[in-house]
TrEMBL record:
Annotated keywords: Immunity, Signal
Sequence ranges assigned to domain Immunoglobulin V-set in this UniProt record: 40-124
Signal sequence, start to end: 1-23
Annotated protein name in UniProt: Ig kappa chain V-I region Walker
Organism encoding this protein: Oryzias melastigma (Marine medaka)
GO cellular component labels: plasma membrane
Length: 158
């Protein structure tokens, strides 16, 4: 795990990247950047594991242990990939099919504080096929993370 910090300036977003991997190596970029409120951000997450065809993005607000699902792609990113609470400012794109490396970009447009101030986690997983899936809460608590789910995080602060 590594951590890179930046000084925070009034009216700007300071972004902090930390990397954590539990099953595969995930790369997230840029390592750090500084943006003004109203600006746009693209966070890119990638890995080389061809059978991990599901990629997810989570948001963890400051002071909260819970992570909110921003959106996910399952082999592809469909029009409804972003959860309704995040639509408007957030969008997802990337390449999850085939046997080559996988990537997922999270775009945040027109940055706002404090609603966009958070740590953003990228996760990757193998597709899970369940005949009758049980009802599930999309918002994971850190202790509930599965072993076959790999995370990388991006911290955004003002």
């Amino acid at each position: 795990m590594f951590m890179m910090m930046m000084m925070m300036k009034t009216g700007h977003f300071a972004l902090l990247l930390t990397g954590v991997s539990m099953a595969i190596q995930i790369h997230q970029s840029p390592p750090a950047l500084l943006k003004e409120a109203g600006g746009d951000v693209q966070l890119v997450c990638s890995h080389q594991q061809s059978d991990f065809r599901v990629m997810l993005w989570y948001q963890q607000p400051p002071g909260s242990a819970a992570m909110k699902l921003v959106g996910y792609g399952y082999v592809e990113f469909r029009d409804d990939a972003v959860e309704e609470a995040f639509r408007g400012h957030f969008s997802l794109a990337g390449e999850l099919s085939g046997d080559k490396h996988k990537n997922a970009s999270l775009f945040i447009r027109n940055l706002r504080a404090p609603e966009h101030t958070a740590t953003y986690f990228c996760a990757a997983s193998k597709p899970q096929f369940i005949k009758h899936p049980p009802a599930a809460d999309k918002n994971l608590q850190p202790a509930e993370a599965r072993e076959d789910l790999s995370f990388s995080s991006f911290n955004e602060r003002i």
